[in-house]
Design goal:
Elements lengths: L1 H29 L9 E4 L1 H10 L6 E4 L13 H34 L1
Antiparallel strand pairs: 1-2
């Protein structure tokens, strides 16, 4: 049971981080034409892997994307953001499916 709870906690963290990434991507896309806007990115995979391997707590970090800026100071790369959005949506579906599977297994164990 403890393993199932840990798995659910890990998947829950990943789902929250992925949702945060989706929000940041949407914000980047909506500011594509905003002069001076600097795109951000959400990273959490390395922190999660380290927490799983070494113990501790994982965290999601929002950091500047670090791309070169255009003349107006904006660095949003719309095709890149759109590709990242597709990838993030697939990750979201995968983690949500895994979480649903874990809940189904627990439900079966409890209810028979």
């Amino acid at each position: 049971m403890a393993d199932a709870i840990q798995t659910i906690n890990v998947l829950g963290f990943a789902l929250n981080a992925i949702n945060e990434r989706n929000q940041v991507i949407a914000n980047n896309i909506s500011n594509e034409n905003t002069p001076g806007y600097q795109a951000n990115v959400v990273t959490f995979e390395n922190s999660l892997a380290s927490a799983l391997q070494n113990g501790g707590t994982a965290s999601a970090a929002v950091t500047p994307e670090g791309l070169a800026s255009s003349i107006n100071g904006n660095n949003v790369n719309l095709p890149g953001e759109m590709a990242l959005e597709v990838q993030t949506n697939l990750e979201n579906q995968s983690v949500a499916n895994s979480l649903n599977t874990e809940f189904s297994v627990l439900s079966t164990a409890i209810n028979g």
